[in-house]
Design goal:
nine-stranded mixed β-sheet, globular, alpha/beta, Dihydrodipicolinate Reductase, domain 2
Amino acid sequence: MDPPRAVWAAMCDRDPDALDAFCRRNGLGDVPRLGSVDGILGRDDIDAVLICTPDYAHREPAEACFSAGLHCLVEKPVATNAGDVRAICRAARSSGRLLHLGFVFRYDPCALKLRELVTGGAIGRVIACVVHEAIGWFHGSTYMRRWNRFRAKSGDMLLHKGCHTFDLLNFITGAYPVRVAAFGGTEVFRPRPEAAERCSDCAVAEGCMYYTDQGPEYRDRFTRTAGPQVLPEDLCVYNVDKDTTDTVGLTAEYTNGMRLSYTMSMVSPQGQRRLTFIGTRGEIRCDMESYRIEYLPLPDRPTEAIDVDVPEGSGHQHHDLCLTHDFLDRIQSGAAADQGVEDAYMSGAVAFAALESMERGQVVAIPAL
């Protein structure tokens, strides 16, 4: 048997019960368990860390680990505000160590095929891209019953969910965003005076598609959507405190001259990520959920259906493994760190600029790192 590419030197969490449970579930009973980042920094047997704290808590451990000369794989988004993103990216750049982001869709077969087609010139020069970030209605309801609904915790749904797509566009086209104009707000989950604060107390619950009876079927679906660590709360999705957007329309301009038209909605029948790339020699259309790409070349040629193999495994399993192997490949090959830093900074740039644009009512330029 070949030796492992990497071994777990330690696990860290400030909640010892959660840490013990995670180690038991994943067969890590013999791995040392630490209660703080200082415990990691005090060891001499660690080369790289995986930072999987909540969205708003990435900066402190990332800066500390980079200062200690460690490579970091940071969960997406990099951080929930532009200031923290810049701080993490600058810490990575100063350390010369790798900043690798948890953008699992970079390893998706659809994304890889789209990159091959677009950068290979299949549609000539790319001049426009149309994207619908269709977030399923049930996913939307779980989001409004979690801490994610607060912008300070998640950076807004536009960042939390949209950063996957914005990073994909950078990856597929090899270009970065330059400026953004956006309109949006909370259009679906507005307060309703006739409804109560909790479903169990609501006089108009009958017929509400977001009603939660806390039964096993709902709880199972909630877990599959939001994750096993989150339990559904009996909160009215309309009247619960929140400051996230649920509907956004934006346009952005890129370094290669491409113009993006992007819509995010949180009330779609199904969760889908639909992308159309328009070039001087044709179009490419893709629904990443169905793993089918349509290629419409010019002039007057039949549409070609490009089937993409669906990866094995469930959920993010295939993508997570690819992400981890890519991180290890970069470490072992001595890959240059700077490209990863720029990718990290630009992954949330459209979302931050869009939120600022909505607030100011102006076109917002994306500042350099």
